[in-house]
Amino acid sequence: MSLLEVDDVVVQFGGVTAVNHASFVAESGKVTGLIGPNGAGKTTCFNVISGLQKPTRGKVRFDGRSVNATPVHRRAKRGMARTFQRLEAFGSLTVRDNVRVAFDIHRGVTGMIRPAAANVDALLERVGIAAYAKERADSIPTGTARLLELARCLASDPKLLLLDEPSSGLDETETDAFGELLRDLAAEGRGVLMVEHDMDLVMAVCDVIHVLDFGEVIASGPPAAVRADHRVQQAYLGYSDEADVELTMTDLAAVDETAEIPAVRTGAEL
Ligand SMILES: Nc1ncnc2c1ncn2[C@@H]1O[C@H](COP(=O)(O)OP(=O)(O)OP(=O)(O)O)[C@@H](O)[C@H]1O
Ligand SMILES: [Mg+2]
């Protein structure tokens, strides 16, 4: 049984089908990638998994039990932790206090004692932001703020980490260190499910990748197989520049005259 099982989930917003019968799993001890072009439904899947979005249909099982009727805070208590694409730290608090608060919230829930300051500092050290401990969270670079979010998640000692575009804002060296940290977190037995546009990082650290396009899972497998998949290449063609978009539309029309012209999307690359 997998740590997380997303089973035939559909999410509709009015006439928009954001997630279309998506099924995928994430395992303990593995880094799983959830990738796809802009608007493919990745964040909506995260919202369904974490309990912020009720699915139109479908089921989510976590750690052996259905969580369909479980509210957000109880999913967190059972071992899910999540970062947001939009940053969520307390801007007026220091980096250290942000992590301390995250510890406090978790201890409050579990009824344990306050953390030693050493725990907070060890966590800052672990994610590589100890140098920023005394800075206000609203004054640190974006990449550092994302690592702060990860530290806040780790304060709850989660079984499953849901990371939405965690590497944006990190430079190359920071991204390499971040990739190693993800591998270490998986080696500790945690499940990591990561939405990420940096394909070098995804291909380097993920054990398994699920690809979403227009809300559907179009491929699942190890990095090499996913990279070689024809549908994946087709879904990603044309995101790098305008000329490619034109070419892709023409190509798709030639392949299937009934195919809808895809909306122009930007930013993702494979
Ligand atoms: N609350 C909402 N109401 C209406 N439509 C929504 C809502 N949230 C998302 N959508 C739509 O659902 C689709 C999927 O959006 P989602 O944010 O899940 O994509 P994504 O894969 O995370 O994209 P990105 O890579 O840009 O973050 C998009 O068409 C989006 O416009
Ligand atoms: Mg998103």
From TrEMBL:
InterPro entries: AAA+_ATPase, ABC_AA/LPS_Transport, ABC_transporter-like_ATP-bd, BCA_ABC_TP_C, P-loop_NTPase. It holds the Pfam family ABC_tran. Transmembrane segments: none annotated. SUPFAM superfamilies: P-loop containing nucleoside triphosphate hydrolases (SSF52540). One of its GO terms (cellular component) is plasma membrane. GO terms for molecular function: ATP binding; ATP hydrolysis activity. The keyword Manganese does not apply. Keywords: ATP-binding, Nucleotide-binding, Transport. This is Branched-chain amino acid transport system ATP-binding protein. Residues 4-239 form the ABC transporter domain. It comes from Nocardioides ginsengisegetis. The keyword Transport applies.
